[in-house]
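thread from #wetlab-drylab

HS: before we spend reagent money on co-crystallization trials with pantoate, can we at least see a predicted complex? here's what I'd submit
DV: go for it
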Amino acid sequence: MKVIRTIPEMQTSVKQERREGKTIGFVPTMGYLHEGHLTLLQKARETNDIVVLSIFVNPTQFGPNEDFDAYPRDFERDEKLAKEAGVDYVFYPDVREMYPKEMSISVSVQKRVDVLCGSKREGHFDGVATVLMKLFNIVNPDQAYFGMKDAQQVAVVDGLIHDYNFPIELVPVETVREEDGLAKSSRNVYLTEQERKEAPALYASLQAAKERIGQGEQNPQAILSFVKNYIETHTSGIIDYVQIYSYPQLTEMDKLEGKLILALAVKFSKARLIDNITWTV
Ligand code: PAF
């Protein structure tokens, strides 16, 4: 496994691999790797000759009230995990390498951002799209892997790839769950014992709603009320949002049909949990 810190070296290495006919799978991350990232790496490893992992805490996707400096970092640990996961190249640039000067062109995401968590993080997805445009041009992958835990990010990346004609296949990877259905997250450790017992009800509420839609319920408002009621009955969490949209367009629907996302965010005493399911009706 090679750790690369400069853009020209990354581009040259990938060019050489491509010349030899190798396919490139890419997993972009901000480091501090967890099981979700390892699943993405595993999927990339299964289908590609070469796996590139990027580790870059991207300042442009942090808002003024979000602490870029406090974002957890542990490169030594990440490097070890990457090696174990069979990564070929770790692209690990610093901020000056990625943003040497003020940019003369900015990326502004127009759609799919004013809903779900994006509505509370103004400019966040502009930063995500900016860094991914750069990373896609640097790594030039055949496939790029993203976790469905952040389904809105996957929707934005889908728009980016299509609108700007990147010859990249977007590979969305299912959320990794605990045995009781709770989506794995580093935030789960902040739940109290009682909250941890309640938390699987979030995923259960989504599944129960899916079943209702499967049985013929087509009214979005009825489904949202059902999920809210389920969460209020089964947990002590405070609902931040429960929303249902077409996917990946993230637009409202009068009638529930086609591909959908049902997503929620719920605040417990010390952790805000998010979850979603996508499926086709
Ligand atoms: O999901 C993340 O970790 C980041 O948003 C990404 C895709 C690596 C871009 O900085």
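DV: Residues 2-173 form a domain with the Rossmann fold fold (CATH 3.40.50.620).
HS: ok that's useful, forwarding to the group
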